[in-house]
Amino acid sequence: MKAPQMLTAAACCIAALVLPAAAANEGALTVETTPEGIEVWLDDTYVGDSPIVGKKLQAGRYRVKLVDPVQHTSVVEDVLVQPDKVTVVEKTMEGKFGSLKVTSDPEGASAYLLTSLGTTPLSNDFMNPGKYRVELRHPSKRYATATEDVVVPRGKTVNLAKTLEKRSPFDLKAFIRLALGAGAVGGFAWAIVEHGRHDKWETMARPDVNPLAQTPSVQKAYEDDAHSAAVRRTVGIVLGSACVVGFEIVAFF
Fold first, then answer.
1. What is the sign, positive or negative, of the torsion defined by CA atoms of 75, 79, 84, 85?
2. Are 158 and 152 in contact (CB under 8 A)?
């Protein structure tokens, strides 16, 4: 037999002995995570996103690194892959952030913390853990603003569902504004009436217009009536003006 043929035959014999031995020394690795889609690295080599099912590996120790690309967190675990066995790694990834989901009835309310989060229904998966006061403001004035204190833990989801209360069309604020509006109208109307009376009595007090006013006592009576009307006119103007100011203050708050 020639030398090249002898080398080929020897290589075949070695392969026949080594390959079964290598196959017999293989195990498998399964990686399952919650949530799925987590990057799986074996000894700094990326092997895919979870779930990884039955990946064939040489028996031995491996360092498994799981990386959450969304939450920017990672965990490392050492595993032993044994021959002819499936090693299972199950891991729940705890996020760096918390999640806040907000719904309202009716929908479309604006949710605020220090700034606007958006309109309901909404979900924010990047909440720094902590305590927050959520304020819901519906664009329709028929619904009252609602507030709720929530605590967002790390890696957890908090669901906030709020039913917005309808405003009564005749609430206390509306009654106050109605009363102030009526007071303003009444005050100014009274001032107009008294202004007319003042002019009337003032004219009646003139002797050249009213012969009766030539008598001093009668003239003084007319003048007193005119003065009283002027005072009432001033009171009406002050009352109406005060009601207008009050109306604006209540409307502002």
1. negative
2. yes
Facing residues of 61 across strands?
80
Report the Cα–Cα distance between both ends of the chain, in Å, rounded: 108
3-state secondary structure string, 187-235?
A: HHHHHHHHHHHHHHHHHHCCCCCCHHHHCHHHHHHHHHHHHHHHHHHHH
Report CA-CA distances (Å) from 159 to 82, 134, 154: 43, 12, 14
**Computed over its alpha carbons, how large is the radius of gyration of the chain?**
44
> What is the distance, to the nearest Å, from the Cα of residue 36 to the centroid of all Cα atoms in its chain?
28
pLDDT, tens digit (0-9, with 9 covering 90-100), for 112-166: 987 888 999 999 988 888 999 999 999 988 898 999 999 999 888 999 999 999 8
Cα–Cα distance, 232 to 164 (Å, whole number): 48
Residue 124, classed as helix, strand or coil, is strand
Specify the pTM. 0.44
Token pair belonging to 70: 């969304």
Number of DSSP helices (H) and strands (E) in the chain, helices first = 3, 14
- At residue 36's C-alpha, the angle toward residues 30 and 37, to 5°, is 95
107 contacts 48 by C-beta, under 8 angstroms: no
Listed in sequence order, the DSSP H helices in 25-140 are none
Q: Note whether 198 and 229 are within 8 A (CB).
A: yes
Is residue 115 within 8 Å of residue 132, measured between CB atoms? no
